[in-house]
Design a protein that fits this description.
- This protein is of the alpha+beta class.
- Strands 2-1-6-5-4-3-7 form a 7-stranded mixed beta sheet, sandwiched between helices.
- Helix 2 crosses helix 3, helix 6 packs antiparallel against helix 7 and helix 7 packs across helix 8.
Amino acid sequence: MTEHFERDRPRLRAVAYRILGSLSEADDALQDAWLRVDRADTSEVENPSGWLTTVVARVCLNMLRARDTRREEPLDEGPRTGTTGPDPAAEAQLADEVGVALLIVLDTLGPAERLAFVLHDMFDVPFDDIAAMLDKTPAATRQLASRARRRVRGVPAPEADPPRRRRAVDAYLAATRGGHFEALVSLLHPDVVLRADAAVVPTPEPFVVTGVEPVARGAMASMARARFTGVVLVDGRIGLAMAERGRLRVVLRFTFADDGLITGIDVIAEPDRLGELRISVIDA
């Protein structure tokens, strides 16, 4: 079974990451799963890969259910950089590969919905097997996946957001990630205004920044967060969302002038405000 586990480790890690949305938690889940495997009697296991997937999925399900009782990490702590944890750059790359928007929408699902959708739609695990993990009937499990699929399915950007606005938001994210100050300045209207709530920095009160260069300098200060940020629909309009470790942390809503320049940026990080937003995956 050790050989099977090591051979399947990349797939098992991919399963855990998509269920949990966090590379560090996925690695913790694999470690816990291995301890369970090492103690188990596997003499009658006929399908080692399927059995290992079940073990990892059960561990991940327990971790999802425990999240509500665990203290959330403050926004300003940033990604973990401990020597034993995953490389933040590697986690950011993996988030890009999976899709930040997808991770954010997955985070809005309940544990059972998320497990059913990830295992069936992403890894072709039969509903009968998933039902056994959830202690539900296959029919009920199929309904869970169906509900999750409706939440996750990408939708096209509305006509009210012309393509140049999508290009502007894409360019804003690219400039922020790359630290390209002049490129960012070129996207901003001379009278641009940035408004951020008290949870963004955090500060005692919400704050307002006006003018191209001050707003651009503020954006440059968020380069680390930009690695975990993706283009999404925010209440049906083009925006950005940051999901470091798979949890929705910050949303940026934009307003535009007729010429496509950005006139306003609303930065939202307060949990209550984030909970009121409708975040959708954009259909490519």
